[in-house]
Specification:
single chain; 234 residues; alpha+beta; Bactericidal permeability-increasing protein, domain 1; 7-stranded antiparallel β-sheet; 7 strands; 40% strand
Length: 234
């Protein structure tokens, strides 16, 4: 029952949803993991747009201020700014593990997304930038793990989530530069000089972008859980 209480407070922002979680028989035993997986998934889907009065911030859409990817083989840095990411509301929780003895939780999530925003390709040694926009259609598997603790404050149970660890594996990605960025690349002599290298490392570059996006979104998702836990809404 203690495990259910801990999970409930991490997953919800209202007592109504907590009661539903318990009434849905998320109890240790057969079907426990599946019940918790569904509860986590429902939380992310139902509250992906945020709940301002509860301090739960949106994760769909989610805006990433800046992502930088350094590609040593081509001597370039890709800068992505104000990247708008949509798709997390359709996240699927594929695995769940609860280690009560160690007070640890681990969730495996899968989701597809579209990310779009301004992009700048910097040629580091040349002091040159090619600018435009880029769109990423991607998908990833993310693993969130963290420890938790239970404390008493003012006679009430308060659940605290420790520092999280987020792992990522890119599943698929396709990047599409805007016409102006593609034209600038095609007509620039420095870009053409490293074109073959770009093509060789493109898949690795795109996978790195996918995981930077995924980790940024999941970090906010965990923070939403942390805020909910601190409020003690059950």
């Amino acid at each position: 029952m203690a495990a259910v209480k801990i999970l409930a407070v991490l997953l919800i922002v209202s007592s109504v949803f907590a009661e539903k979680l318990i009434k849905d028989n998320c109890k240790q035993g057969p079907g426990f993991d599946e019940c918790i997986k569904k509860a986590v998934q429902d939380f992310f889907q139902n509250y992906s747009g945020g709940v301002p009065d509860k301090g739960v911030k949106p994760v769909d859409p989610f805006v990433i201020d800046h992502i930088e990817v350094h590609t040593e083989e081509t001597g370039t840095k890709t800068h992505l700014t104000n990247l708008n990411v949509v798709g997390f509301k359709n996240v699927k929780v594929s695995e769940y593990h609860h280690d009560e003895a160690a007070s640890k939780e681990r969730f495996t999530l899968k989701f597809d997304f579209i990310a779009e925003g301004p992009a700048s390709l910097e040629f580091v040694s040349k002091g040159k930038h090619l600018s435009g926009t880029v769109k990423y259609n991607g998908g990833a598997t993310g693993i969130i793990s963290y420890s938790y603790s239970l404390k008493k404050e003012n006679g009430q149970d308060v659940y605290e989530i420790g520092p999280e660890t987020i792992e990522c594996q890119s599943q698929h990605v396709k990047s599409t530069p805007s016409d102006d960025l593609q034209k600038a690349f095609d007509s620039d002599p420095d870009a053409q000089a490293v074109k073959d290298k770009f093509e060789e490392v493109e898949s690795g570059h795109e996978a790195e972008v996918v995981c930077k996006i995924t980790k940024a979104v999941l970090k906010q998702a965990v923070e939403n859980l942390r805020v909910s836990a601190r409020q003690g809404d059950i």
